[in-house]
C-alpha cells in the first residue's frame, strides 16, 4: 500500500470500523427495500398491464387512473401521505396492521411498491401493444386460446421489448429509495446523513455514499446487459 | 369547501417557489445539456472525456445524495474559500449557501446530464447533407450551428426535453428535504401541526398533477408546431 494511503487511513477518524458497519447496515436496508418493492411492483404490474390493454374502458380506465396519479405526482409526497396518513386511519391502532405499519420500513415499502408498479405497468403495456400483429395471428391460426396466447406468445415477446426500459426503472428506483431516509429509515443515505452530522464532514460522508450507490448502479447495469444479451440471443448474428 | 386552516397563502407562496425552482433548473439544465452534447460530439478528447465522466457520475448517484452533498458540502467549501481569501489576500468574501441555490444547481446539474444525452441524439439525427450544404454556402461554424443544426435538432430533441421536464418537475419536491420552504415543506409542517396529513398533502399532490398534466398538453402542442411540414410515416 502506498505510504500516503496508509498514513491517511491511520489519521482519519471518520472511516472507522463502526462507521463502516453503519454504512453496511444502510446498504442492507436499501437493497432490501428496493428489491422487495421491485418484486412486489413487478408481480402486480403484469396483470395490471394486461387489464390496461383491455378494450373495455371500465377495465382499463381504473388502471389508467392509478398509473396516471402515481406517475404524475412526486414519490416523496406519496411517501408522506402513506407514512403520516396510515396512523390517522380511524381504528388502525387497535388492529394488528398497526404492529406492521408503525415501523417506517413498511409504509416506505408500500409507497415504493405502488410507485414502481405504476411505472412498470406502463412499460409492460407499451411492450404488449407493440407485439407484431403477425405473431398473434399465427397463434390464433394454431388454435391457441386467449390465455395460452398470452402466456406463450405475447408476454415472452413483450418481456424482450420491456427489459431495456425496465432496467432504467430499476436504477431509477434505487436512486429514489434515497428518500427513505426522510422517514427515519437508516438506509445508505440515512447512514451518510448520520455520519455527516456526527463529524460535520459532508465531503467524506456523502462522496463515500455516492460511490457506493454508483457501484450498486453499475452492478445493476451489468446484470441487465447480461440479461438482455440472454433474452435477445436469437438476434445475434450467425457465427458470433 | 377546502379549508386550509390559514395555511393557504403560505402554500401558494410555496407553489410559486416550486415553479421558480423548476424553471431556473430547466434553464441551467438546457445550457449544460447543449455544452455537454457539443463536447461529446467534438473531436477534442479532453472535452469528450469530461462530458462522459459528467454524465456517468450523474447517472450513478441518487438526486438526494447529490443535493445533500451540494448543500452541506457547498457551505463548507465556501467557508474554506472565504478563510483562504481572507488569510492570503485580505479579501472579504462570504455568502450563505441557501437551499434555493443548492436546489437549482443540483437539479440543473442532474438534468443537464440527461439533456446532454437528449441533445446528442438530436444532433446526430440532423442529416449530414444539411451541414455540408451550409458549409458549401460558406457558413461559418457558428452560423451552421445557429441557423441549420440548432433549429433542426430542436425538433428531434423536443420529446426528450419534455420527458426530462416532467421528471424534473417531480424532483423539485426533494428540495423541501434540505429546508427550502416550497409547497411540500409547508404541507409537511401544516400536516404535522394539525395532524391532518391527507388534508394538506392531497392538494399539493393535485398541484403537481395539474402541473404535469398541463406540461403534457403544452409539450404536445409544441411538438405539433415543431413538426409542421414533416410528413409522418405511418
From TrEMBL, chain A:
It is a multi-pass membrane protein. It is found in: Cell inner membrane; Cell membrane. GO terms for biological process: amino acid transport. Residues 27-224 form the ABC transmembrane type-1 domain. Its main location: membrane. It holds the Pfam family BPD_transp_1. It comes from the Bacteria. The chain crosses the membrane at residues 31-51, 63-85, 170-193, 205-224. InterPro entries: AA_ABC_transptr_permease_3TM, ArtM/GltK/GlnP/TcyL/YhdX-like, MetI-like, MetI-like_sf. Coiled coil: none annotated. Keywords: Amino-acid transport, Cell inner membrane, Cell membrane, Membrane, Transmembrane, Transmembrane helix, Transport. One of its GO terms (cellular component) is ATP-binding cassette (ABC) transporter complex. CDD domains: TM_PBP2. GO terms for molecular function: transmembrane transporter activity. Belongs to the binding-protein-dependent transport system permease family. HisMQ subfamily. This is Arginine ABC transporter permease protein ArtM. It comes from Marinobacter pelagius. The lineage of its organism: Bacteria, Pseudomonadati, Pseudomonadota, Gammaproteobacteria, Pseudomonadales.
Automatic annotation (TrEMBL), chain B:
Residues 15-219 form the ABC transmembrane type-1 domain. It is a multi-pass membrane protein. GO terms for biological process: amino acid transport. One of its GO terms (cellular component) is ATP-binding cassette (ABC) transporter complex. Its main location: membrane. One of its GO terms (molecular function) is transmembrane transporter activity. SUPFAM superfamilies: MetI-like. The keyword Glycosyltransferase does not apply. Keywords: Amino-acid transport, Cell inner membrane, Cell membrane, Membrane, Transmembrane, Transmembrane helix, Transport. Belongs to the binding-protein-dependent transport system permease family. HisMQ subfamily. This is Amino acid ABC transporter membrane protein 1, PAAT family (TC 3.A.1.3.-). It comes from Marinobacter pelagius.
